[in-house]
Amino acid sequence: MNKKVKLLIASILGLSTLISCAPINQYTYVEGKINIVATTTMLGDLAKNIGGEDVSVSILMKPGVDPHSYNPKPSDARALAKADLVMINGLHLEAKMGDVLLSIDANKRFIASDGLEANNAVTILKNAEGQSDPHIWGDVNNWLIVATSFKEKMMAFDRLHASSYESRYNDYYHELLALEDYVVNRVNELSNDKKVLITAHDAFAYFGRAHGFSVHSIQGISTQSEASVKDIQDLANLVVDLNVKAIFVETSVPENTIRSVVEAVQARGRKLNIGGHLYSDSLGDDKSGGETYIKMCKHNVDTIVNALI
Fold this sequence. Notes:
Elements: H1 3-12, E1 34-38, H2 41-51, E2 55-59, H3 74-82, E3 85-88, H4 98-102, E4 109-111, H5 112-117, H6 140-157, H7 162-187, E5 196-201, H8 205-211, E6 214-219, H9 229-242, E7 246-250, H10 256-266, E8 273-278, H11 293-308
Parallel strand pairs: 1-2, 1-3, 3-4, 5-6, 7-8
Helix pairs in contact: 2-6, 6-7, 7-11, 9-10
């Protein structure tokens, strides 16, 4: 990373110099491996599956952290400066880190959304204001493309271990194909009239498009948007009109707005259940049942179908 980028990182994090950063424990640089820093848990999991023993992976945003509102720490600057490769979701998911991340040398960064935008078969979703939806991992077919792009990046970045990356990618690719079959089979248990998915913020549009769900939320694409009383009342009216059985909270978003919808529906004399917790912007912690991308997707679809069926 050049001096200009280092100074930019230091400036944005409010530091006078990178060298003055306090020692950090959560990031360890391992000699002899490709040291990868991933912004999100989903990207970190991808790196581990394809990188295997040839990489060391650190994740900036820990399980349960909301990437939309994540404030970078001084230790993040140290990790980014030391990294051999930085994995970024893109599409403004890492809202408060955007300038820093995009200033990293292009050869040393991987932007997951770039592979989708370059693929003519995938359309990036946008909201009414034209903002791109960054929640690309919601559709397993998108993640297959991201995995392919990352494998190609690693094979070019570390030619010495290219065959190992390709071998692990092939194994993981087939695991993702099996995951997509699992999701499709579970979704097919629902009749079309029950495919109404309501969550705290708009994180499931790609899932909805892939599987025929009508998706609604209180907040928009970013959790930084504010939910108004009118938003809650409008959503409560929709729940009543469509006879929705359950709505869902998210592990990385406070529950208060969803519970407000439940109360508003109950005030109209209707029953509405909270169908369970969904992983939206982060994987779960160890042994949560959602600690890997594959486990997260299975948990989410099981929770949705079991609550709506």
